[in-house]
Amino acid sequence: MIDIQKANETAVNRMMTARPILKTVATARDVIPGMRDKLLLHAGPPITWQRASGPMKGAIIGGILFEGWARDEGSAIELAETGAIKLEPCHEHDAVGPMAGITSPSMKVYVVENVTHGNMAYSNLNEGYGKVLRYGAYSTEVLDKLRWMNDVMGPVLAEALVLSDGLDMRALLAESLHMGDEGHNRNKAGSIMFTTKLAPHIVNTDATDAVKAEILQFMGENALTVLNPVMAACKAMADAGHGIEGSTVMTVMARNGTDLGIRVSGLGDQWFTGPVGQPDGLYFPGFTADDASGDIGDSTITETAGIGAFAMASAPAIVTFISGTPEMAINTTLKMYEITTAEHNAFSIPALGFRGTPVGVDIRKVIELGIRPQINTGIAHREPGIGQVGAGLVLPPMNVFEDALLAYAQKYLT
To answer: CATH number of the domain at 18-230, out of 3.90.1710.10, 2.60.40.3410, 3.30.450.20, 3.30.300.130?
Structure first.
């Protein structure tokens, strides 16, 4: 007889005791399991070129051009259409990526080790705001920035991280939650701390003073600098709770712009998918909901690990970006306690008397109570390359939890 409560406690305890350390920056093909030539990793569950959203298609084109597999846009599209370029989810390779999430073999990635349980996780580098690959842009300017990040910034960050002996991302996250971040859409404090902790080591690298200054300016001006290593840290924590026999805890939630998919600890690597939602939020001047793409990105790994929208009570100022009120932010966190297994022992919320953040979504509770996990998210333009047009709130489709629970019943209860 399966003891579901005990299995869920085991899964969530492993998630909470995981200690993700950012070790270095390395080339994707050298460290990501299964990475190979003519392969692009993407956000969300599996997707084909034919079903991909505008931002995803643009990012795929950009990844092909970045690698030099095609000379121009037309040739890149032909490769994608014929299947000469393979597409596989980041999550199937221990990796995550924001928005389109495109990660190619020669891209530099953050390398995070969960030193408690030994599993690894990876994420690409954050490009900042504006016209960027993760929103489907692939102009010469975009690709030039990516090459600078890869060839100049990446090696310096790798050297700095080795000099630092690694950064404890769980500790950094815990502190940033006490400074007004929630770890998904608001990372201002975390990015400042991340840059501050690395700055002395960057200064001590062998790079020229001009390069060091350029890197520090780039990191300091990007309020999302820390998002990608945070996502890798959350992936390492969530994966620590995956594969527990009998557990109904969700360990993956991700979107590709067309579908949202989840995975459940006790159900192996099976995806349960449904249509992505349309975020409801605030739009930048000149844009409306008609301009928006469907929800996209692996960044919901933050909610999966117990931060993001689940920790909105720690970041009331985020409502000026995603819409709503400070009271709504607090109530969102309170509602998430109803569908989760535990209160995090490392992440706490001052506004709630330092109560631990809700962690470990139980698919049974989602269905029983009709409460879906809240997501706060950036909103991409439906056309590739235009970029972020707003930010808001969105919910996953209920069918993914229903389908997962049916599969669970068939595996364990029949």
So the answer is: 3.90.1710.10
